[in-house]
Design brief:
This protein is mainly α. It is about 65% helix and about 10% strand. It has two helices and two strands, in the order H-E-E-H. It has a two-stranded antiparallel ribbon with strand order 1-2. Strand 1 and strand 2 form a beta hairpin. The longest helix has about 45 residues.
Length: about 100
């Protein structure tokens, strides 16, 4: 069921993007980037480039955050393993011996 919902959501986003691109295909804007200025850039290009640039920035930020969380979890797991090894009773014996 969730596969169909995801597919339907992606299809809706695709249709909206195609509609936006089609309706604004002839619209041109001037893009001032501070260092240089681009003239007569299609507005749909500016919108999609901004979308993809934002997605890339979030990917990079997410990777950094994910690596930090993984490092924290790894150190906690090592600490818990150390504590558990210290708690093991060295004199403990099994009730049933394993056959040779």
């Amino acid at each position: 069921m969730s596969r169909w919902v995801g597919l339907a959501g992606a299809s809706v986003v695709l249709v909206i993007a195609l509609g936006f691109g089609t309706l604004n295909a002839s619209q041109r804007v001037t893009l001032d980037l501070g260092i240089f200025t681009l003239y007569r850039v299609p507005v749909s290009f500016v919108a999609f480039a901004g979308l993809f640039l934002g997605m890339f920035v979030m990917l990079v930020a997410g990777i950094y955050s994910d690596l930090r969380v993984r490092d924290i979890l790894r150190s906690r797991l090592q600490e818990e393993g150390r504590e558990e090894r210290e708690r093991i009773d060295k004199n403990q014996r099994d009730l049933f011996k394993e056959p040779d």
